[in-house]
Design a protein that fits this description.
Blueprint: H1 14-21, H2 26-46, H3 92-96, H4 98-109, H5 114-122, H6 129-158, H7 164-177, H8 181-190, H9 200-227, H10 236-252, H11 256-279
Helix pairs in contact: 2-4, 4-6, 4-10, 5-6, 6-9, 7-9, 7-11, 8-9, 10-11
Length: about 280
Amino acid sequence: MRALRPIPAVAIGPARLGSIARRPTLWVEAGLLLTWMALAVEPLLLHPAGASASGPQGPGGGGLWECMIGMGGMRPGAPGPLPPLSFAGHPVSLLATLPMLALMAVAMMVPTAMPAIRHVALNSLYWRRRRAVAEFLAVFVAIWTAFSLLVLGALSAWGLPASPPAAAAVLALAALWQLTPLKRRAMLACHQAKPLPPRGWRATAGVARFGLHNGGACLLSCWAMMLTTAFVGLPRLVWMALLTTLITAERLNLKPRRTARRVGALLGAAALFAVVFALA
């Protein structure tokens, strides 16, 4: 019999480490890792073991995590949870969620934009490469933060609580959106590159326009899936990780239409499960 050859080991030497360090998107990838770590650690810091998570939550106290979409706080003396941001009655509570909304936008949506970020880095002059990527990220993250703030404000104003029927309806909406022509056109627009001027204010404007184009297409493509974050009863970080995996696989796959249909089927199955759970 022919002997199987072992897989050769990959040596990590100074030259290979140097090539990794020269990756134009390395600092973005490191920032993504730190963002997910911050989101994972934040609830533990705000609610250490033995501390009560149901005490009064105000704009200056409690956790930003608890005033996120679908989490809700507790009014002092109230018998149960209230809609998001209604725990304090202060308008500033909505603005207080901006840091967490931005972190969520970075953690969930920036991984899907890595090809666009790499395009910006490789098509900018070396001395302004990081600046160009930062400009793109500022526009891209601002689009998703504004969308999240709009959804959060609407849920707070309408007083829509998270429930199995609401989760089923939103999951079904997301599954149907996966099959629409607008979704397909948005996915194609996500992969369109734009020429970037080399220097001066034209370079900044060109990166900003590309950020608006890519971020707008990404929003049109993924808004329905992101909306499910407000209603699904799974732990927030778990559902965020699942959605990030699905959206990134859809965006980076060589056959995005087929992947979009499969993601739609998964969302439809989740909607049926939510219906069964609501009827049980």
